[in-house]
Specification:
alpha/beta; eight-stranded parallel barrel; 11 helices; binds phosphoenolpyruvate
């Protein structure tokens, strides 16, 4: 099964209205490369403005609550995201796991809620540096996938992102071989959970210090279907070369 490359920008807690020019430029680059799927996840406050600034670009969110509404001060629900114009949502990001103590079960519930409301879902997994150094990365990632991926996950609405926490924002990346090996392990785990056909079609993104300089090599690995990009998605100048690297691979 052919998996189209997918490149997703995660602006984290960055972005004000003055940055909408970057959204427009990223949207123009995405339109110029129709062979690649591109999405951008700005903070909640910019979602509607980003949709208006670049109507053809898939705009997403960085989290959603598992409930549709209720007494959850400060949270945002999936229907709210849909109303704002989001089409995709990242759940279970390691920064939320670390800062908001989110678990894989939380990610599962958020993914299910987002799917109920028609959003594409990107579930994140990845080991810490201590887990990596202790040789536990494989088991940690497998357990995260087992607990956070809904049974009905399918390629048309679900994407997995493997992001070793020690590579996020550090400028360090695993070797291409190590990335591809972990993606193969993740795909084998998906197969157990959702069946062979769905697992073959679900895209697995790599995240962690991807730049225009390394994206081509990373995305060329057989089990890598694109990237989840933090710092290098904040400006078109840095993000567009990553989109181009994905486009060059077809
Ligand atoms: C991320 O936070 O998802 C990420 C991959 O960040 P960075 O690209 O900055 O390492």
């Amino acid at each position: 099964m052919t998996r189209r490359k997918l490149v997703v920008g995660n602006w984290k807690m960055n972005g004000l209205k003055r940055d909408l020019g970057e959204v427009r430029a990223i949207g123009a680059a995405a339109a110029a490369h129709p062979g690649v799927d591109v999405a951008l996840c700005p903070p909640f406050t910019l979602i509607a403005d980003a949709v208006a600034a670049s109507p053809g670009l898939v705009i997403g969110a960085q989290d959603c609550h598992a409930a549709d509404s209720g007494p959850h001060t400060g949270n945002i629900s999936a229907p709210m995201l849909v109303e704002a114009g989001a089409r995709t949502v990242i759940v279970g990001h390691s920064e939320r796991r670390a800062d908001q103590f989110e678990t894989s079960q939380d990610a599962w519930a958020k993914a299910a809620a987002a799917h109920r409301h028609g959003l594409h879902v990107i579930v994140c997994c990845g080991e810490t540096e201590a887990e990596h150094d202790a040789g536990r990365a494989e088991r940690v990632v497998q357990a995260q996938i087992e607990k956070s991926v809904p049974d009905e996950a399918a390629p048309d609405w679900f994407t997995l992102a493997y992001e070793p926490r020690w590579a996020i924002g550090t400028g360090r990346t695993p070797s291409i071989e190590a990335i591809n090996a972990m993606h193969a392990i993740a795909r084998a785990k998906l197969k157990q959970l959702v069946g062979g056909e769905a697992a073959r079609g679900i895209r697995i993104l790599y995240g962690g210090s991807v730049t225009g300089a390394n994206a081509g090599d990373i995305f060329a690995a057989s089990d890598v279907d694109g990237g989840l990009i933090g710092g290098a998605s904040l400006t078109a100048a840095k993000f567009v070369p990553i989109i181009e690297a994905a486009a060059a691979l077809g």
